[in-house]
Amino acid sequence: MSQTLAFPYKPNDSEAEKASNGYLMSVIAIMAGLPLPIINLIATFIFYLGNRKGTYFVRWHCTQTLISQLTILIMNSVGFSWTMSIAFGSRTLSNAYFAYIITIFLFNAVEFIVTIAAAIKIRKGKHVHWWFWGTLTDLICKP
Asked: What would the pLDDT profile of 116-134 be if each residue is shown by its tens digit?
């Protein structure tokens, strides 16, 4: 899901710490706002706003984290609305529903683990490029 790549330059300790904190922000927000997945996106967005004029390394990693949180918000919102339509609406349980809920659970668990691993690697000054989000970040974030 992620790979460590070479970055155009070696970030200093301050840059590595700020970039790592972007990933940790989303993990801490998960713990604080678990029932409301929008809390993760808001916390990550605020951190992004605070660092959007920082160095390229910091901006790149804050952007990658923000994009990943947006994707997770969309997936979790679909699952939440589907669950509410079953609980309070006319929809019934189906194999497709259970498959989606299991997929969301696995996706969230993997993203949580990968986020912690990325924060550790980035704190050491290594560049972590996530499979899907890293490519999008390359298109959005320019040096």
From this structure: 999 999 998 888 888 888 8
Type of residue found at 125: G
| 111-133 exposure pattern, b = at least 16 Cβ within 10 A, e = fewer | beebbeebbebbbebbbbbbeeb
Q: Would you kindly state where each structural domain of the chain is located, as residue ranges?
A: 2-140
Identify the CA nearest to 61 among candidates 129, 120, 9. Answer: 129
Q: What is the DSSP string of 30-63?
A: HHHSTT-THHHHHHHHHHHHHHTTS-HHHHHHHH
Neighbours of 37 (CB within 10 A): 21
pTM: 0.82
Asked if 37 and 77 count as a contact pair (C-beta separation under 8 A), the reply is yes
In the DSSP assignment, the letter for residue 125 is T
Residue 36: CB atoms within 10 Å: 13
